[in-house]
Write a structure and sequence with these properties.
Strand 1, helix 1 and strand 2 form a beta-alpha-beta unit. Helix 4 runs parallel beside helix 5. The chain has ten helices and 13 strands. It is an alpha/beta fold and 326 residues long.
């Protein structure tokens, strides 16, 4: 039986990954600074621990795992990443985790390790036109990420590739583009756009409106979490080390995203655009390389993923109303 370690297993993608690996027959150890808020994970072991502490990393990464998935990071949506208020923690915590994990994985002889980078590491100057963003893998340099979060992701990519060159660490690196779905953060300030839209629209009465940051014309693409995991597993089973985009090419404006959720909820669209953190004007995954190397492309339309996500968040909102009424 293959053994896997999932760092960040208490998070959104990490929790889904634990379930996927168990379904494939892996023995899985999960580690995170927090338990998963929305699911009882089927991990064989789940360890609460702070991966910024090298002692904790040495205790959980104590053997030559067949596969390690390094998803742990200090992160959140635009309200957390782009205000500037959390930059020091984002950079320090995430970089420290990656420094610890790369060194320890090399020390114990891990057979293969995956690192989840982000599309936020792409240069802001290539993402000023909302209709024609450039996010192909080779466009990363000259570097100019739009946030300190993006700079840390770029640094850590280089860190893992340096360990690959100098110490033979068998790495795989992918750049995630806005992964979404059920069982993720949907309130509290760290939620991302799809979850925020679903929550806001679930909470209002028909005819009520929601506020959307910016003019709503900024563009993004969003990838359903099951699709993301399929691409990650294909990358790990391949000989391609990356970096490679994992995302959707179905680009929409943020207002269009909100309009989709209004339609799913059966409520008339009512959007008020207000000032707020937005990041770059346009971003869309370029999937040419992953199609070439792995033969992978998304198969689930954005609206189908949003329907599943809205149904789950709507249940959370209703459950909270019931608790508040007691």
């Amino acid at each position: 039986m293959k053994k896997a370690l999932v760092c960040g297993a208490g998070g959104f993608i990490g929790g889904h990954l634990v379930k996927r690996l168990k379904g494939e027959g892996f023995w899985v150890r999960g580690v995170d600074v927090k338990s998963h808020e929305y699911s009882n994970l089927p991990a064989d072991e789940f360890i609460l621990g702070d991966l910024t502490d090298p002692v904790v990393v040495a205790s959980v990464l104590d053997q030559p795992f067949d596969e390690v998935y390094q998803l742990a990071a200090d992160m959140g949506g635009a309200g957390y990443i782009f205000t500037g208020d959390n930059d020091a923690n984002v950079m320090h915590n995430s970089a420290t985790i990656n420094l610890n994990v790369a060194a320890q994985a090399t020390k114990v002889g891990v057979k293969k390790i995956f690192y989840s980078s982000s599309a936020c590491m792409y240069p802001a100057y290539n993402q000023e036109d909302p209709d024609n963003p450039k996010c192909s893998e080779e466009s990363a340099y000259p570097a100019a990420p739009d946030s300190e979060y993006g700079w840390e992701k770029l640094f850590s990519e280089r860190l893992f590739f340096a360990y690959h060159r100098n110490y033979g660490l068998n790495v795989r690196v992918a750049r995630f583009h806005n992964i979404f779905g059920p069982l993720g953060t949907w309130r509290g300030g760290k939620e991302k756009a799809p979850a925020a839209m679903c929550r806001k629209i679930s909470e209002i009465e028909p005819g009520g409106g929601i506020e959307v940051w910016g003019d709503g014309k900024q563009t993004r693409s969003f990838l359903y979490v099951d699709e993301c995991l399929e691409a990650v597993r294909r990358l790990m089973d391949s000989d391609f080390i990356g970096p490679v985009n994992i995302g959707s090419e179905e680009m929409v404006t943020i207002n269009q995203l909100a309009e989709m959720v209004f339609e799913i909820a059966g409520k008339p669209a009512n959007i008020k655009n207000i000032p707020g953190p937005t990041g770059v004007r346009g971003r869309n995954s370029d999937n040419a390389l992953i199609k070439e190397k792995l033969g992978w492309a998304p198969s689930i339309p954005l609206k189908v993923g949003l329907e599943k996500t809205f149904q789950w968040i709507n249940k959370q909102v209703e459950a909270n109303k019931e608790v508040a009424a007691v």
